[in-house]
Design a protein that fits this description.
By secondary structure, this protein is α+β, with helices and mostly antiparallel strands. The chain is 28% helix and 22% strand. Strands 1-2 form a two-stranded parallel sheet. InterPro entries: FAD/NAD-bd_sf (IPR036188).
């Protein structure tokens, strides 16, 4: 058996959700991050 890649799912692509995704990737660059947003737009703010 191979090693499985760790994954995190974030619900909500607003500023808080994208910030959480950014922090998760920064703490663990090998982490697979998936963000789900119900609306047509996600946050692209700094």
């Amino acid at each position: 058996m191979g090693t499985r890649k760790k994954r995190v799912v974030i619900i909500g692509g607003d500023a808080a959700g994208m910030s959480a995704a950014s922090v998760a990737k920064r703490k663990n660059p090998d982490l697979e991050v998936m963000v789900f947003e119900k609306g047509p737009h996600t946050s692209y703010s700094a």
